[in-house]
Amino acid sequence: MSGPYRYTDPPSPKTATGTTAAVYAQARTDFGIPKPSTLIVLASAPELLAPTWSLLRESLIAGSGSRADRELVAAGVSQANRCPFCVDAHAVLLHAHGDHGLGEAVARGTEPRDARAARILRWGRDTRVPGAPGLAPPPFPRADLAAQLGTALAFHFINRIVSALLTENLLPANAQRRRAVRALAGRSVSGVVRAAHPPGTSLPLLDSLEPGPGWAVGSPVGPAYEALRTAATKGAGLLDDADLGLVQQTVARWDGTHPPAVWPELPDRAERPGARLALLAALAPYRITDADVAAWRVPPFTDHCLVHLVAYGAFAAVDRIESALPAALVDRLETR
């Protein structure tokens, strides 16, 4: 398949069956995008596809509160993670919501004029830092916490998948970098973005419905988050014990900063290519190179394996962020 994909050749949506076809059908109806590359890139490892879609849908699309607020959270996360593809996407979706000024502020990386919007965008950025005290109190009603925090964690995962496995081109030739194109693209999906989407529709696509973390109890965000955690952490099986320990210890010490150009903890690609790929996926996926992938991806490893390894690293960072959420923000009554 041609398109924005790096390192994998995901199967065409035209060939999809079963749960994969059902995910694409829901995305077409609820996301307004018939062939979202952010989901298609996971199709080489379809067991990751439905949980990722479910968390995205139940938080960003069907969550409680304002869709514009959730788009701002997702945009702030994407800015913090240096994911231009996702920043551009949320700028377009803010245009679709009718918030043209906010869409342009996000696209240009400037401060929104509205103080509340600026605080929500900043809150999204702050979620990259494990335990950031600025996360509490949140700039939205506590009743919306599951939707907003679910959105933030969904995009901490999706940003890393996108940065590792897609190019930066949201539209051909980066056309979305022009304001007129952003506004036009937003209008094309405005009806879907502004529509009400009932919560829970994606849950029948999941293999199991565990309640998930305490901050999401009673919300479909909880089972969706837990399903993604279960699916993504299976990628740990691609690493031997020594490499797995190195990745876990390094991520456990991570303070939310972007690694320096000279990163002593990053393993040599010739000696420990799997640990190197997983750590890059977790903390700096935009730095993954052709050489990094080639050093690890030798037989018997396939597209399926690569997507799983990247997903493991991506969710390791998500888990570091989620497990360090300040007590002032969330009730730490875990139900796992």
Element layout with pairings:
Blueprint lengths: L17 H14 L5 H4 L5 H16 L5 H14 L3 H14 L2 H9 L6 H12 L18 H21 L13 H10 L1 H5 L26 H13 L7 H13 L19 H11 L6 H7 L6 H21 L13
Helix pairs in contact: 1-3, 3-8, 3-11, 4-5, 4-7, 4-8, 5-6, 5-9, 8-15, 12-13, 12-15, 13-14, 13-15
Question: How would you explain this protein's 3D organization?
Answer:
The structure is a single chain. This protein starts with 17 loop residues before the first helix and ends in a 13-residue tail after the last helix. With 336 residues, it is an all-alpha fold. The protein has 15 helices and no strands. The longest helix has 21 residues, at 145-165. It has helices spanning 18-31, 37-40, 46-61, 67-80, 84-97, 100-108, 115-126, 145-165, 179-188, 190-194, 221-233, 241-253, 273-283, 290-296, 303-323. The chain is 55% helix and 0% strand. Helix 3 runs antiparallel to helix 11. It is globular.
- The N- and C-terminal alpha carbons lie at a distance of 39 Å
Number of helices in the DSSP assignment: 15
What's the alpha carbon Rg, rounded to whole Å? 19 Å
Inertia-based shape:
globular
Q: How many strands in all?
A: 0
Q: How many strands, which pairing sense, and closed or not: the largest β-sheet?
A: none
Q: Structural class given helices, strands, pairing?
A: mainly alpha
Question: Uncertain spans, ≥5 residues at pLDDT below 50?
Answer: 332-336
Into which percent range does the helicity of residues fall? 40-55%
Q: Oligomeric state of the chains? A: single chain
Beta-strand portion reads: under 5%
The averaged pLDDT comes out at 93
SSE pattern: HHHHHHHHHHHHHHH
